[in-house]
Specification:
Elements (H helix, E strand, L loop, with lengths): L3 E2 L14 H10 L4 E7 L23 H14 L5 E9 L5 H8 L8 E5 L2 E4 L2 E4 L6 H7 L1 H17 L7 E2 L17 H17 L3 E5 L14 H9 L4 E4 L12 H11 L3 E6 L2 E6 L2
Parallel strand pairs: 1-2, 2-3, 3-4, 4-7, 7-8, 8-9
Antiparallel strand pairs: 5-6, 10-11
Helix pairs in contact: 5-6
Bound molecules: zinc ion (2 copies).
């Protein structure tokens, strides 16, 4: 089947390589049906996140116009060759959704899809980016079980925040990235939090991304795990594929392998978005 890749970055975020056009050209070379461009939404409107190196995470607000118009031009330029969809990956930051919306509302009508992510957690020592190598010491001193717990509780807040408007949950079980797992005696507690989170996703009728970046990280497994995917299937939660490419060569990474896995679980459809409306394509 011709693949659609819904999670891609580019050099505008300062931690990826390749221009927007490089990704589009590579996607055409790979004969993808569609590339969803979803660079990190700016962080510079946020308050109280001192110590989090946001300059390494995303473009700034004043650059969003150039981001959107560049993609709109590429869409036109390559319309005979590939479908291009415009999106953002937006971090959920507690109590600041209203601030986010003052900026996002100005551009939301130009977007085809929005990925909702949790990377930044708030604990006694303040905010920190749970999946950034530079915070690994903090991760370990907090303890994997507490990280998983706080992560899913934050995701539940994101899902309960009706003001936080998005379509797709990115990298569902991200805290496992560095091959970390909760302790044995907190497993049940975490499983329970996962179930609560999935129920909220179902209730909001959102889509979950199968993110293959995990296969390139120490955990060597896609997000979410097969175990969680069996639950999303039982709950009839729609899914789609994202490579989370930070290099054009990572586009559609291991998608064939994922399709095999998804078929085995029972999935026969993948979600697709245009102007924030969901449709489905067959897995073949
Ligand atoms: Zn990134
Ligand atoms: Zn992410």
């Amino acid at each position: 089947m011709k693949f659609q890749d819904w999670h891609t970055h580019n050099s505008m975020c300062h931690h990826a390589i390749g221009s927007l056009e490089d990704y589009v050209k590579k996607a055409i070379e790979l004969d993808l049906d569609l590339i969803g461009i979803s660079d990190h939404f700016p962080y510079d409107y946020l308050i109280g996140i001192d110590g989090v190196p946001i300059e390494d995470y995303a473009m700034i607000l004043t650059e969003t116009e150039s981001y959107l118009s560049t993609i709109e031009n590429l869409k036109e330029k390559y319309k005979e060759k590939i479908n291009i969809k415009i999106g953002f990956e937006i971090d959920y930051i507690e109590n600041q959704v209203e601030r986010l919306n003052t900026h996002l509302s100005k551009m939301i009508s130009r977007l085809d899809f929005i990925l909702g992510s949790v990377h930044i957690l708030f604990s006694e020592n303040g905010p920190w980016a749970m999946d950034d190598k530079r915070f690994l010491e903090q991760y370990d001193s907090f303890g994997a079980s507490s990280v998983f717990l706080l992560y899913y509780q934050t995701m539940q807040k994101m899902l309960n925040s009706t003001e936080f408007d998005f379509d797709i949950i990115s990298h569902f079980d991200l805290p496992k990235k560095y091959n970390k797992s909760p302790s044995k005696n907190s497993k049940d507690l975490i499983t329970n939090e996962i179930s609560k989170t999935l129920d909220l996703i179902k209730k909001r009728d959102l889509t979950i991304e199968i993110n293959t970046a995990g296969l390139r990280k120490p955990i060597k497994e896609q997000y979410p795990s097969k175990e969680i995917l069996k639950k999303t299937y039982e709950l009839d939660i729609p899914i789609l594929l994202g490579s989370d490419a930070h290099d054009p060569n990572e586009l559609a990474y291991e998608f064939k392998k994922m399709v095999k896995l998804l078929k085995k679980i029972g999935y026969n459809k993948l979600a697709s978005f245009s102007q924030r409306k969901r449709s489905f394509i067959d897995i073949i």
